[in-house]
Amino acid sequence: MLSNFAYVRAHSVREAVKHLTSDNASLHAGGTDLLGCLRDHVFHADKVVSISRLNALKGIRETAQGGVRIGALTTITEVAENSILNRRFKALARGASEVASPQLRNQGTLGGNICQKPRCWYYRGEFDCLRKGGDRCFAVGGENQFHCIFGGDSCYIVHPSDTAPALVALDAAVRIVGQRGTRTVPMANFHVPPGRDVLRDTVLDPDEIVTEIAVPPAPSGLRSSYRKVRARRSWDFALAGVALAIVFNGDIVDSAKVVLSGVAPVPWRSMEVEEIITGNPLNAEVAAKAAEAAVKNASPMEKNGYKIPLLRGVIEEELLAAAGV
Ligand SMILES: Cc1cc2nc3c(=O)[nH]c(=O)nc-3n(C[C@H](O)[C@H](O)[C@H](O)COP(=O)(O)OP(=O)(O)OC[C@H]3O[C@@H](n4cnc5c(N)ncnc54)[C@H](O)[C@@H]3O)c2cc1C
Fold first, then answer.
1. Using a 6 Å cutoff on CB, does residue 108 contact ligand 1?
2. Which atom of ligand 1 is the closest one to the Cα of 29?
3. Contact assessment for residue 319 and residue 291, using Cβ atoms and an 8 Å cutoff
4. Which residue's CA is the nearest one to ligand 1's atom 21?
5. What percent of the chain has pLDDT over 70?
6. Whole-angstrom Cα distance, residue 274 to residue 259?
7. For residue 32, how far is its CA from the centre of ligand 1 (angstroms)?
């Protein structure tokens, strides 16, 4: 059951920021994640501040240079269906189309998708885990089949978003407004790994709001994609996945960003894959070698060792698909 909270509908970003400065306030966009967290007592809010009516934060605009600016309240469906994104920034459109179910994509927003809370069943359940200020991670020695194989450091969640890895691969940046003004943070630095601060998911301070996500112009020769493997076809979070943003010069890979999903507490850049494919033709031999290198430093837990061959296979297949092999 939901506990009582005050509900405020903000008429401007500034008004929302002001409300967020009061103790224990939570921001509400589409509400698909927030309300579940409040109902399940993952955390409590005394005040819920809705920005859902702020039309200035909705929509996808092309910039004069050929990039895009996406308002934080743009629905995930709009991101998945937008023609510019499907033509030029396929990884993002594809990532959005892989999120949850049609109903959740219609209601959920891009800002909410990158700010959503982790799905670890201990964090979401009645466990006083590290991420909730407790003194241990229950996934260690527990039911850890869906937890991370990279970057686990006291807490072993996986990052739940399907759009965030694509945004990191595409070099996107997040515009943030708070009481102290406006700042822009690269998507690659937006999420906070548990080793740095186990109580934070993102760099956002309590009074800060993501207002926009900017994707820079696509370099010529860019091919981008997102591939996700999940247990069920209806809706489910990634067991393993990969976002690619590869710039080809003929057959040769000029530069590459490779970002993994479902395997680490934050969108996880695979430098190993990037190094192996850059400067080479992306053929079967190179793809296999890169996929092998991607999992070399994985640290599986007792019950999630299956993620290693799964991830290796997904990376190899997606690299070959990007090369058109
Ligand atoms: C059954 C189910 C299945 C799902 N499956 C997937 C999946 O496969 N892949 C996937 O990626 N996601 C999945 N999700 C998560 C879903 O995509 C998110 O719930 C949704 O994207 C959140 O968007 P929202 O606008 O509803 O956010 P809200 O629920 O309103 O907010 C979510 C969180 O983000 C914060 N927030 C929201 N907007 C902003 C902003 N502009 N600035 C700062 N903070 C903000 C809120 O305070 C809150 O903490 C699933 C969710 C459910 C319930």
1. yes
2. 30
3. yes
4. 113
5. 100
6. 10
7. 6
Each residue's pLDDT tens digit, 255-286: 999 999 999 999 999 999 999 999 999 999 99
Task: With a cut of 90, say whether residue 325 has pLDDT above it.
Answer: no
* Mean pLDDT, residues 128-146: 97
> Which residue among 116, 168, 182, 203 has the greatest number of ligand 1 atoms within 8 angstroms of its CB, and so is best to mutate?
116
116 alpha carbon – ligand 1 mean position (Å): 4
Q: Would you say the CB of residue 185 lies under 6 angstroms from ligand 1? A: no
| Alpha carbons 309 and 314: distance in angstroms, whole number | 9
Three-class SS state of 194: coil
Arithmetic mean of pLDDT, 159-171? 98
Amino acid residing at 152: G
| Cα 31 to middle of ligand 1, angstroms | 7
Residue 23 has pLDDT above 90, yes or no: no
Q: Could you tell me the pTM of the whole model?
A: 0.98
Residue 88 CB coordination number (10 Å): 20
Sheet strand arrangement including 6-9: 6-9, 47-50, 25-28
The residue type found at 164 is A
3-state secondary structure of 209: strand
Which band of pLDDT confidence, cut at 50, 70 and 90, is reported for residue 235?
confident
Which DSSP string corresponds to 243-273?
A: EEEEEEETTEEEEEEEEEESSSSS-EE-HHH
**Residue 28: half-sphere exposure toward Cβ, Cα within 13 Å:** 22
Ligand 1 in contact with 165 (CB < 6 A)? no
Q: What is the pLDDT of residue 1?
A: 80
The answer to whether 157 touches 194, Cβ cutoff 8 Å, is yes
CB atoms within 10 A of CB 92: 31
Give per-residue pLDDT as tens, 24-43. 999 999 999 999 999 999 99
Q: Is the dihedral of CA 5, 10, 13, 18 positive or negative?
A: negative
How many angstroms separate the alpha carbon of residue 46 from the centre of ligand 1?
20
> What is the amino acid identity at position 182?
T
